[in-house]
Amino acid sequence: MIPKELLRKIRQIEIRTRRLVAESLAGQYQSAFKGMGMDFDEVREYQPGDEVRTIDWNVTARMNHPFVKKFREERELTVMLLVDLSASGMFGSGEQSKRELAAELASVLAFSAIRNQDRVGLVLFTETVEHYLPPQKGRRHVLRVVRDILCHKPTYRGTSINGALEFARRMLPHRAIVVLVSDFLPETNPSRAEILAHLKRKVLHSETLGRISSGVLRQLARRHDVVALQVVDPYEMALPAIGRLMLQDAETGEVVEVNTSDQRRLRAFSARATKTQDELDRLFRASGVDAIRVRTDQSYERALADFFDNREKKRGRR
User: Fold this and answer.
1) pLDDT tens-digit profile of 91-101?
2) pLDDT tens digit sequence for 18-70
């Protein structure tokens, strides 16, 4: 039985995301994610400006004047959402946790997909794949996707992105759109001497590169259209100067005392977070993966719209 509060939250997400999709994002989604091929549709009489290579010479010979072939895009796609449910996703310094934002983003993509007659599937993972929902169409299925993200109680607290990528590679026999939704925080604890501030295991963001195999990511991206959707909280990029804090690591339970009045450490924390984000972005580019970053304290609408626009422009240049 789903609690009423959670049902209300799912309904609110549906209302917000369906409006956004209907008003703007559905068309941008279709332009950004093209079909996998072209199907023959019909022939029609040649008109000035038509591509000569599309002339159907057999029909032209029978009719004694030129006809061209018309094609339509093979539109139906499969969108597979890989959503990280490790315990760090429950963190949120504002009104919305990273997990709630991930569910809303998944809802936007899922409603955009079904509006374009595409299928949507779901993989929920932590240290292992915990839940798999095969791709389907329809509003009820999208609501199931959102419900599962919000309602699923993970068995484990850590993260294995490589395991999720391998699972997707095995489960998708044909080309698909794979959207990896995660905060991309490290899965191993650094030593105490390496800690600058904040949640102990989340300071060394550079560990992220050690837990995502570039080989596995590149291999998946060669066969599928892979998008990395990074969900971050502003406190993971820069700590506020609010004195001494006792903070608990969501995935290990370890408690760390942090003195946020130390400006030197705050600057070092921010510099290291920036450096590691740059490294992560380079990893995505080198693997042929498009990436988008959204924050829990900002509207995601502009970020998604810009992402779709950039993909369409990039495809237009090819």
Assistant:
1) 877 888 999 99
2) 878 877 676 777 777 765 555 545 778 888 878 778 888 887 888 888 988 77
| Shared-domain flag, residues 54 and 198 | no
* Complete DSSP assignment for 141-187: HHHHHHHHHHH---S-SS--HHHHHHHHHHH--S--EEEEEE----S
- CA dist 97 and 296 (Å) reads 7
C-beta neighbour count of 228 within 10 angstroms: 25
Asked whether 8 and 289 are in contact (CB, 8 A), the reply is: no
Q: Say yes or no: 182 and 281 in one domain.
A: yes
Length of the chain: 318
Task: List the one residue out of 214, 207, 247 whose CA is nearest residue 228.
Answer: 214
CATH number at residue 80: 3.40.50.410
d(CA 162, CA 167): 9
pTM: 0.76
Beta bridge pairs of residue 180: 82, 228
Q: Is residue 204 part of a domain?
A: yes
AA identity, residue 41: D
DSSP character for 288? T
Say if residue 184 is in the same domain as residue 108: yes
Task: Determine how many CB atoms are found less than 10 A away from the CB of residue 230.
Answer: 20
CA dist., res. 73 & res. 185, Å (int): 39
Task: Please report how many Cα atoms fall inside a 13 Å half-sphere around the Cα of residue 134, on the Cβ side.
Answer: 2
Q: Is the domain of 185 the same as that of 237? A: yes
